[in-house]
Amino acid sequence: MPSKSGLIHKYAIAGALAVSSFAVAQPASALVFDANVTNNVIMGTGIGNGGWTIDRSNGVELALRSKERFPTPSGTYNSNGDGTYSWAAGSPPANPGKAFWSWEWSINSDFDGSGEPIGSYTYEFGVDADAGPGISFVVNDYIALGGDHSFGDNSTAQSAGLEAADATAYATFLATKNLAQNSWQPQWHIPAFDASVDGTYDFYLAAFDDNGNQLARTAMTVIVGTGGVPVPEPGSLALLASSLLGFGFMRRRKKT
């Protein structure tokens, strides 16, 4: 089986080909912030719950979050409590070129007993490739593409998810499991990503039934540094304030 990095880069390339080829999903329903997913975080080793931005609709639970990845993985999410997560630009000295943060997703297609297995639905993962205020989504269905996702169900213990060893096992998981999760670094899915650049990156995850009806959708925003919005220099702010005061004085004088 290919290494994790090999798999992820394979799917990242496929996703990059899909820029703007999908319609942007409809607005999300009411989201829950800084919440726990059902029932555990089953991926990786010792990865805790919490900090998720979640939509629970039509028996489907979709969740996104951003988490500290470098210099060491931790349970730090830097959530602002409204579906946004803030990080410093740059890279740790020991990990040049790597962002401090990763982005993580969770799909539970039967969180309340009224849904279906993972493979019963289709999914859209939208990743913003524009570091500036604009949005340019790279969109793909990483469930359909496959990968090293961790699979389980509502009884799977923390960090006890299963990863498919081959295509047959993956198909079996899609037909029998209702929980899937993964954790990815931004450079795997954002073309020309530069960890040293301030930026704002939007993410969404949506689920659809066989008729194309949206069942659930969650979304989050990762703000790096100033968010890619220029911050006026103190001198510029003073000049602006002076101009506004002068303009006000002229208006008053003209009125008199």
What does this entry look like structurally?
This protein is of the alpha+beta class. The chain has one domain. 19% of the residues lie in helices and 28% in strands. The protein contains four helices and eleven strands. The strands form two sheets. A six-stranded antiparallel sheet has the order 1-2-3-5-9-8, with no helix packed on it. The protein has a five-stranded mixed sheet with strand order 4-11-10-6-7. Strand 2 and strand 3 form a beta hairpin. The radius of gyration is 21 Å and the shape is globular. The termini are far apart. The N terminus and C terminus are likely disordered.
What descriptive keywords fit this protein?
256 residues; alpha+beta; six-stranded antiparallel beta sheet; five-stranded mixed beta sheet; 11 strands; 28% strand; globular; disordered N terminus; disordered C terminus
